[in-house]
Design goal:
alpha/beta, Rossmann fold, two-stranded antiparallel ribbon
Length: 195
């Protein structure tokens, strides 16, 4: 299948039409956040599933029951996909843990008003690209990646399923994040490859 058959454009971003239905996007746009909601925001293939496992374990004090009994898409649902409309998130007790691949500029109005907690996960774009290339190749709801060089051009041109990797944070946000990160990590004795 071709990109035009599989994808649609929502707020300038390509997304699989079968996952992001008009009904799910309307639900997303009208979503009411709570101040104690926890949002896991990531670009695809940046560690979302790990966070969907780790955060519920932290919130449950390490009790693995919810992680072992509920699939991650029900435990930490994607706010914008079709199945989420049916999960009655309004009735869930606080704090709710939710996921999104949408950029900050695409968040519903209540996000800016309520200001829920956000865990933003970043990953080296080289690793995101490699993981995305293999993921696209094994899924049935995405266009096959084709040759790696062709997929690289699409990735660099922002034609991925969550838009341009570079648009996830503004330059100012990325600089602020880096400054806060460096400050928080200044007394850590570990050395990282980039130090």
């Amino acid at each position: 299948m071709t990109e035009t058959e599989i994808y649609k454009v929502y707020k300038g971003v390509y997304m699989p039409a079968n996952l992001y239905t008009p009904q799910s996007l309307k639900y997303y746009e009208e979503f009411s956040f709570r101040p104690d909601d926890i949002i896991i925001a990531t670009y695809p293939k940046s560690g979302t599933t790990w966070m969907q496992e780790i955060v519920p374990l932290i919130m449950s004090g390490g009790d693995p029951a919810s992680v072992e009994t509920l699939p991650n898409w029900r435990r930490v649902p994607w706010m914008e996909v079709d199945n989420t409309c049916k999960l009655n998130l309004e009735q869930r007790p606080s704090p709710r843990i939710l996921s999104t691949h949408f950029q900050y500029a695409m968040m519903p109005p209540s996000f800016s008003e309520i200001k829920p907690k956000v865990i933003y996960v970043m990953r080296n774009p080289k690793d995101v690209f490699t993981s995305s290339f293999h993921f696209y190749g094994m899924t049935s709801f995405l266009v096959k990646p084709g040759p790696q060089s062709e997929f690289l051009h699409k990735f660099l041109d922002g034609k991925g399923i969550a838009g341009d990797w570079k648009d996830q944070l503004t330059v100012a946000e990325a600089e602020y994040f880096e400054a806060v990160y460096k400050d928080k990590m200044k007394d850590v004795k570990y050395k990282f490859a980039w130090d």
